[in-house]
Amino acid sequence: MRLKDRVAIITGAGQGIGRAYAFAFAREGAQVVVADLNEAKAKAVAEEVVAAGGRAIAVTVDVSDRHSVQAMVDATVTAFGTVHVLVNNAAVFATLTMKPFEEISVEEWDRVLAVNSRGTFLCCQAVAPVMRANKYGRIVNISSSVVQTGRAHYAHYVASKGAVWALTHALATELGTDGITVNSISPHGIVTEVPRGTITDDQWAGILADQALKRKGEVSDMVGATLFLASDDSKYMTGQTLGVDAGLRYT
Ligand SMILES: NC(=O)c1ccc[n+]([C@@H]2O[C@H](COP(=O)([O-])OP(=O)(O)OC[C@H]3O[C@@H](n4cnc5c(N)ncnc54)[C@H](O)[C@@H]3O)[C@@H](O)[C@H]2O)c1
User: Fold this and answer.
1) How much of the chain exceeds pLDDT 70, in percent?
2) Ligand 1 centroid to residue 90 C-alpha, Å
3) Does the active-site annotation cover 250?
């Protein structure tokens, strides 16, 4: 019960890795806010968590919108009294269209950065007053290994996750005075229940060749590191980025 009675907002928890966090956090005793743009999926996950004996509510949110994000935090405080943990997991990811950077439109660039980068910023900003008042907080930002490796035809996504990484360092310095830690995770190669067209079979072969561990990741592979950063097991760590990446070679 590493998150016993903690209140945890997980954005993008309607599917994929975020969904796995919702179940894992609830199993560890947290009161979970399943926050997602997709209302039906958020509700389904919250219902499943409750059916499994956990505590959860669903909140529909667009993390790129300041008012929507504030409403998410308000709904959390109304339901559970406060916020202890924020996992900034929502992203334009599985639905992303890859293309040479010369062909990425301003609108596509802006949308990816609005959700992935600004969304992380806005969620941190909205929980900060609550966490500062508590003199306690755990913020876990989800970045990506592609920040270090780069990846062709992914410029908008890579840049958006680079901002998440950098923001982690910046906010750690500002929020540490109030006992709030801000760390990030760089996942790599995690297969979820959601099909995505951004990695072909040939590319998988190349990716596995670059990994020390020769297998694809599963959502359960993400849970341990995220729980660690969301709990007091990491209480003397801030401004750090953990690679959950099967030992990916970066050079
Ligand atoms: N799966 C991987 O291999 C991998 C690798 C590196 C990083 N990541 C990161 O991990 C996180 C989860 O990955 P995933 O595979 O589960 O992604 P996913 O695309 O399957 O899920 C993203 C979730 O975010 C939600 N979302 C999208 N826009 C939103 C918005 N504006 N407001 C609120 N919610 C919104 C979606 O509805 C969806 O439920 C993402 O941040 C992703 O970039 C994943």
Assistant:
1) 100
2) 5
3) no
What is the band of 126 on the pLDDT scale with cuts at 50, 70, 90? very high
Question: From the CA of 44, how far away is ligand 1's center (Å)?
Answer: 17
* 180-187: strand order across its sheet: 55-60, 31-36, 7-11, 85-88, 137-142, 180-187, 241-244
Which residue's CA is minimally distant from atom 11 of ligand 1? 89
| Domain residue ranges of the chain, discontinuous segments joined by + | 7-244
Report yes or no on whether pTM surpasses 0.90.
Answer: yes
Question: Domain 7-244 adopts which CATH fold?
Answer: Rossmann fold (3.40.50)
Of the candidates 21, 136, 154, 157, the residue annotated as catalytic is: 157
Q: Label residue 196 by pLDDT band (50, 70, 90).
A: confident
